[in-house]
Amino acid sequence: MRYQISGKQIDIGDALQTHVKSELDEVVAKYSQRPTDATVVFSRNAHEYVCEAVIHLSTGLSASAKAHAVEIYAAFDACREKLDKQLRRYKRRLKDHHLGRTEPVEFGAGSAYILAASEESEDTEPETLQPIIIAEMETKIPSLSVGEAVMQMELSESRLLVFRNEKHSGVNVVYRREDGNIGWIDPRNNG
After folding, report:
1. Is 78 in the same domain as 15?
2. What is the pTM of this model?
3. 142-174 pLDDT tens trace
4. How far apart are the first and last CA of the chain?
5. Of 27, 43, 44, 45, which is the most buried if we count CB atoms within 10 A?
6. Whole domain around residue 140: which residue ranges?
């Protein structure tokens, strides 16, 4: 497994990197036998350490977690437990999807834009309907089934996921509704 372990304005020692690698190897070995990669970022927020981790599975799915603690090792251990819980919860579903999929998930390219926030009050009319683009980045859009998209959204703890539907190659969206249910937007479904 490939690792990218870094710290935002804090030094990450060799002992912590070794600990992270051994613990994540153990977690991933339980649920995935294929090579994967992981990104772990440590940072500091006031008196607490923050650990954010993302594990990319060979099936194309990703699991992510974030944890806070007063000590850096405790922050990582809490983050690892969250990842373990996510992967354990979806172990059966991951295996089922893995067996049905003969090739890894394909990713298409797309553009992602960050728009400037409106500084005007809600009562006033904006001067122009053209938003100001403050950043443009390339993003990856996975080609998944609807079930896999819902599982990916839940694994990554996102509020929504844009994906290319494997059935008809159209762009779809799954999202978490305020009532806790999952919504699915499929523009091709005219019924």
Report:
1. yes
2. 0.63
3. 888 888 888 888 877 788 889 999 888 889 999
4. 45
5. 27
6. 105-185
Distance CA 40, CA 23 (A): 12
Residues found in the chain: 191
CATH number of the domain that residue 177 is part of: 3.30.505.50
DSSP one-letter string for 72-109: HHHHHHHHHHHHHHHHHHTHHHHHHHHHH-SSPPPEEE
86 & 141 share domain: no
In what side-by-side order are the strands of the sheet with 107-115? 107-115, 133-144, 160-165, 171-176, 182-185
Of 98, 117, 148, the one marking the end of a domain is 98
Are 105 and 61 spatial neighbours (Cβ–Cβ below 8 Å)? yes
187, exposed or middle or buried, with CB in 10 Å at 0-12, 13-18, 19+?
exposed
Domain count within the chain = 2
The predicted pLDDT at position 123 comes to 61
